[in-house]
Amino acid sequence: MRHVIALDVGGTGMKAALVAADGTLLHRARRPTGRERGPRAVVAGILDFAASLREHGLREYGESAAAAGVAVPGIVDEADGVAVYAANLGWRDVPLRSALAERLGLPVALGHDVRAGGLAEGRMGAGRGADRFLFVALGTGIAGAIGIGGRIEAGAHGCAGEIGHIVVRPDGPACGCGQRGCLEALASAGAVSRAWAAATGDPDADAAGCARAVEAGDPRALPVWHEAVDALAAGLVTGLTLLDPRVIVVGGGLAEAGDTLFEPLRAAVGERVTFQQLPLIVPAALGDTAGCLGAGLLAWDLVSVEVSA
Questions:
Q1: Domain annotation covers residue 256
Q2: Residue of 68, 83, 89, 76 lying closest to 292 (CA atoms)
Q3: Are residues 276 and 294 in the same domain?
Q4: Which terminus of the chain has a lower count of CB atoms within 10 Å, N or C?
Q5: Is 90 a member of any domain?
Q6: Does a structural domain hold residue 195?
Q7: Do 137 and 53 belong together in one domain?
Q8: CATH number of the domain residue 237 falls in
Q9: Is 227 exposed, middle or buried (0-12, 13-18, 19+ CB in 10 A)?
Q10: Cβ distance 284 to 139 under 8 Å?
């Protein structure tokens, strides 16, 4: 069976799969990223993991993978195949595509983790059928992906979709990027966890606990949740004003709160729009498989381009 290798590299773990042309995950595997051993060890681990997947495909299906796709965090130069910078992995200017191609003997596509997840949601998930969509991932931070005509817009410098660093409160809390009042500093799962920990006095309190407290009507949780939702609505309205998407797909850990998040969020966005057309605001459909599926799609796209050429 024809298949490609897909790798989704995170700060603590790597998810991988062999992916068929129709998106079926034929084989899945996980390994720790091993960032505590340093950036060179992380790269070596990625190469070894990819090689083991290639061997598994040969054993199971009697043929080598057609290509490989890898999605990584941070700043990614997809055109040159370079992982430019990732703070949580400690690397700079890693020529990951060429290193993987040499190790595997296969064509390799390199992509950004959130943009890869957005690609999968656009083609196979909650954004399927939408010619323009915005994917927003609410995790420890906030990142996004702009979908246009079945593709993800990377931008001139590989930074398109960084909605987490739109300033929504100019005098707000400091953000890791150096600005103040960024969306990420107010509405990410990390920001909600910090605010909820401060409200309860419990250093172990987290965003999931805050969501449960909101559902239970805890008066301490309501203002924390309201502030995050209001900030998120402001960021989304800026995004939809610029991009005019038909659908906004919201994923990441905070989206697991379900209607506790989506009902007030839709209302808050609706109250803010004036001339803009209100898009559908829906939860992501693919969960933690989105990054792997997106990496697989990048690999299949690479094969399609080579065949057509």
A1: yes
A2: 68
A3: no
A4: C
A5: yes
A6: yes
A7: no
A8: 3.30.420.40
A9: middle
A10: no
Q: What is the pLDDT of residues 65-85, one digit of tens each?
A: 999 999 999 889 998 999 998
Parallel, antiparallel or unpaired: strands 142-148 and 82-86: unpaired
Task: Pull the structure tokens for residue 164.
Answer: 């987490």
**Which residue is it, tokens 């590299």?**
9
Contact call for residues 84 and 76 (beta carbons, < 8 A): yes
Same-domain status, 26 and 94: yes
- Residue 290's Cβ-side half-sphere holds a number of Cα atoms within 13 Å equal to 30
Nearest Cα neighbor of 54 from 45, 43, 63 is: 63
DSSP string across 24-45: -EEEEEEEE--GGG-HHHHHHH
- CA–CA distance, 305 with 309 (Å, rounded to integer): 6
HSE, CB side, 13 Å, CA atoms: give it for residue 81: 17
Report the DSSP beta bridge partners of residue 31: 14
- Same domain for 37 and 84, yes or no, is yes
Beta strand 68-72 with 4-9: parallel, antiparallel or unpaired?
Answer: parallel
Whether residue 297 has pLDDT greater than 80: yes
Tokens of 147: 């979908």
- Cα separation of 279 and 111, whole Å? 27
Q: Evaluate if pTM is beyond 0.85.
A: yes
Q: Which domain holds residue 90?
A: 4-116+288-308
What is the distance of C-alpha 266 from the center of its chain? 21
Query: What are the two backbone dihedrals, phi and then psi, of residue 95, each rounded to the nearest 5 degrees?
Result: -80, 70
Look-up: residue for tokens 């965003």?
207
Per DSSP bridges, beta strands 4-9 and 108-112 are: unpaired
Which amino acid is it at 193? S
And the tokens for 222? 């309501």
